[in-house]
Specification:
Layout (H helix, E strand, L loop, with lengths): L1 H53 L4 H26 L5 H17 L1 H16 L7 E4 L2 E8 L3 E5 L5 E5 H6 L2 E3 L5 E10 L5 H14 L10 E7 L4 E10 L3 H18 L18
Antiparallel strand pairs: 1-2, 1-5, 2-3, 3-4, 6-8, 7-8
Helix pairs in contact: 1-2, 6-7
């Protein structure tokens, strides 16, 4: 009995030695590969982050892409390490692919918003602080996230717009340029002095300090309307002065026209009564 047990122990010992000789070097090499690979992945991810920072990529997108690069490299490293110790990775890769497809189909809308966020952050049709008109809303951009863009309206309402529709729709960037043209329309009566009214408008705009002096003020007859002659005045201002000049001029022109005897007509109708007798 003792000889049989000794033989079994020797057999198990020989098997253990054989396994150690067969898989030991692979296991040690796999552990070394894993340790060195994780260090290399971290170095590559940090290097990619610094490269994106130098390239001017937005902080939100930069952090997300850096984490994504690190995650993908770590998955590839684990698959490589598993194959080094003899684990079959073909089925594992197929399972990962099927799981990725299922998750992609389940999160189709979110992925569309994610792709839109990446496009916005890369191509920068607008930036934080810009006033935009998009998806039926006008407001200042306060934050650009991966999935959503947040606007603050003039009356202090917070609007959250998904990036998918935002990146595929029309966007009017109101403050992208340093200067803007102010278009103003005023009506005068057909019996008023047209040239005098044009002169009053021109002088008022040219004397306003917000109007840029390097571009001419233009005043035209825009339309012969039913009750008035419509004058169109155009002037250039810095973007920040647009609304201030726009509202001020409507008040000042009314006061100036009143003092100059220029009427501002309103729709009216004459009714003639005919006596049948």
């Amino acid at each position: 009995m003792e000889n049989i047990e000794i033989d079994k122990l020797e057999k198990y010992y020989d098997q253990a030695i054989g396994l150690a000789m067969s898989y030991g070097p692979k296991l040690v090499l796999a552990i070394l590969t894993l340790i060195i690979g994780l260090w290399v992945v971290n170095v590559v991810a940090r290097g990619a982050g610094k490269a994106m920072e130098k390239g001017g990529i937005e902080l939100t997108l930069r952090g997300f892409l850096q984490n994504m690069i690190g995650m993908i490299l770590k998955v590839l490293l684990l698959i490589s390490v598993a194959s080094m110790v003899g684990i079959e990775t073909t089925s594992f890769i197929a399972i990962l692919g099927a799981a990725g497809l299922a998750v992609g189909l389940a999160l189709q809308g979110s992925l569309q918003n994610f792709a839109g966020g990446v496009i916005i952050l890369l191509f920068k049709p607008f930036k934080v602080g810009d006033w935009i008109d998009a998806q039926g809303f006008i407001g200042a951009v306060t934050e650009i996230q991966i999935f959503n863009t947040i606007l603050m309206t003039p009356d202090n309402q917070r609007i959250i717009i998904p990036n998918g529709g935002l990146s595929n729709g029309c966007i009017k960037n109101i403050t992208a340029e340093a200067t803007r043209r102010v278009d103003l329309k005023f009506g005068i009566g057909y019996g008023d002095d047209l040239l005098h009214a044009k002169s009053v408008l021109r002088n008022m705009l040219e004397s306003d300090e917000r109007v840029l002096k390097d571009k001419d003020v233009e005043v035209y007859v825009a339309e012969h309307a039913d009750s008035a002659v419509i004058l169109l005045a155009r002037a250039w201002v810095n973007s920040g002065d647009y609304w201030g000049l726009y509202f001020d001029m409507h008040e000042k022109v009314k006061l100036a026209f009143d003092s100059e005897g220029i009427s501002i007509p309103f729709p009216q109708r004459d009714v003639h009564m005919i006596n049948a007798a």
